[in-house]
Amino acid sequence: MQTHSFLVGRPISLMVLDYGLFKVHANGRIIGISGFLLRTDKDECVLIDTGFPKHFADDPQKASAADGLGSFGEILHLTKVNLPHGQLALAGLSIADIDLLILTHSHIDHVGGIADLPGVPILLSSAERALPRPLYFGKCRPMAWPDVDYVTIDGDHDIGPGFRALFSPGHAPGQLAFLIDLPQTGPVLLTSDAISRPAEVDEQFDTAPDPALACASAARLLALAQQKAAFIIYGHCPDQWPRLKKAPDLYL
After folding, report:
1. Are 233 and 188 in contact (CB under 8 A)?
2. Predicted local distance difference test score (pLDDT) of residue 1
């Protein structure tokens, strides 16, 4: 079933979720896998991304071999605590408390748990939802889109007051970033993989499926961040990851 509108309240807190640690073979870069939990002034819980599929927590090496991920990199740390239910438990919450799931894009480290939230609507860009199956990894497409209500958006979209989705394609056809206005922290830009780390800008996104589009999206996001004096949380920045507050700590 498809739906096309969903409005939540104003964000009052942001929690960074730790979905594990991954090492990229090509350059030795160690990256954190992040998700986010937002609470609103309507007492809603909004989950952004779900990390790796749960079978990776059971046996990361076996799962990586089966899905071909081992050709790209190595999971250094991923336990059941690094799955959505484990991260939510740190905040005293469960999957049943989630009102809306937002998918930034459908690669393996973001889409893995979308079938594990029965009854929760999923918000994503229409460009990503139009894919026959989630992108997952490489040519591997083992996942189907789950049978839930979908909130599909085109372009930029206000999800709620102080909570705006920013269409930022290049890394993925339906890549989303988010600008969130928190009561104390102020504006926060969640770039997701539209800018996984600042050095990508200098590298001109040379590994992206569409480098030119990725460059244009990143330039727009960085200009907006400068205009709003926003705190930027990058998608997979090795330098930033250890410094971020993570569940159960909050940005308010």
Report:
1. yes
2. 40
> At residue 241, what is the residue type?
W
Structure pTM? 0.96
Q: Are 93 and 114 in contact (CB under 8 A)?
A: no
Low-confidence ranges of the chain (pLDDT < 70): 1-5
Beta-ladder partners of 164: 158, 179
**Single-letter code of the amino acid located at 23:** K
Given the candidates 3.40.50.2000, 3.40.50.1100, 3.40.50.720, 3.60.15.10, the CATH classification of the domain at 2-243 is: 3.60.15.10
User: Within 10 A of 144 (CB to CB), how many other CB atoms are there?
Assistant: 10
Could you count the other beta carbons within 10 Å of the beta carbon of residue 216? Answer: 15
| Residue given tokens 């990229």 in the structure block | 24
The torsion defined by the Cα of 131, 106, 179 and 195, in degrees rounded to 10, comes to: -110
Q: How far is CA 44 from CA 4, 41, 101, 151, in A?
A: 19, 7, 11, 17
52, two tokens: 């790796």
